[in-house]
Design a protein that fits this description.
Elements: H1 3-10, H2 16-27, H3 37-50, E1 54-58, H4 64-71, E2 78-83, H5 86-98, E3 105-109, H6 112-121, E4 126-131, H7 138-148, E5 149-158, H8 174-188, E6 192-197, E7 203-208
Parallel strand pairs: 1-2, 1-4, 2-3, 4-5
Antiparallel strand pairs: 5-7, 6-7
Helix pairs in contact: 2-5, 3-4, 6-7
Protein name: O-methyltransferase
InterPro entries: Cation-dep_OMT, SAM-dependent_MTases_sf, SAM_O-MeTrfase
GO molecular function: O-methyltransferase activity; S-adenosylmethionine-dependent methyltransferase activity
């Protein structure tokens, strides 16, 4: 973590719900790869400021980002979260419930592409998306988000720098190639207004044009 990032985080008191989620993720032996705290708070602010009421999260992990997203929802808002591993959903839901947000989340368990196709087939539409799943799937997930997006929807995606591998031309693994493709698409797609925030591991943000 850079000094500026550490300084920014030091300004705010510990968050009991998010600390519980972090500790629970470690205790369950899950990877400690939740969204950075400052980006988690940004997600809350974006959901709240945009008035989003239907969020689609691709990759639940242990519920840290789910808490951040659901906190921004108003009355009647709902988070739909896709996760391939049943045991991760159990952990995530426990943390969401402990944070008082269990009634705002619905989990779909299985391969995200299958769940996305099912949602599209059911005519579902969303006004906020958060992608934080297998990196090789990011280009596909972006296209699914576009199919499921309401006009003006926000799309956020974490880890778009892959710990610096993206900018290293010697790195040519499948995850790196897929993430480069994702970044290039989100930057060039004329259906989107977008930017990439360069702190932490990179966060892509886009708004679907009306």
């Amino acid at each position: 973590m850079h000094n500026a990032e550490h300084y920014a985080e030091s300004l705010y008191p510990p968050d009991a719900d998010l600390q519980r989620a972090e500790e629970g993720i470690r205790a369950a032996g899950m990877p400690a790869i939740s969204v950075a705290p400052a980006y988690g708070k940004l997600l809350t602010l974006l959901v709240r400021a945009s008035g989003a009421s239907s969020i689609l999260e691709i990759g639940a992990l242990g519920g840290y980002s789910g808490i951040c997203l659901a906190r921004g929802l108003g009355e009647g808002g709902m988070l739909t979260s896709l996760e391939v591993r049943h045991e991760y959903v159990d952990v995530a839901y426990a943390h969401m419930t402990a944070a008082g947000l269990g009634g705002k989340v619905n989990y779909l368990i299985g391969d995200a592409r299958d769940s996305l196709a099912e949602l599209a087939g059911d005519g579902k539409r969303y006004d906020f998306f958060f992608i934080d799943a297998d990196k090789e799937g990011y280009p596909d997930y972006l296209e699914w988000c576009m199919k499921l997006a309401l006009p003006g929807a926000i799309i956020a995606a974490d880890n778009v720098f892959l710990k610096g591998r993206i900018s290293n031309p010697e790195k040519q693994g499948p995850s790196v190639r897929a993430m480069r493709m994702f970044n290039e698409r989100i930057a060039a797609d004329e259906r989107l207004d977008s930017t990439i925030l360069p702190a932490y591991d990179g966060l892509a943000l886009a708004v679907v044009k009306g």
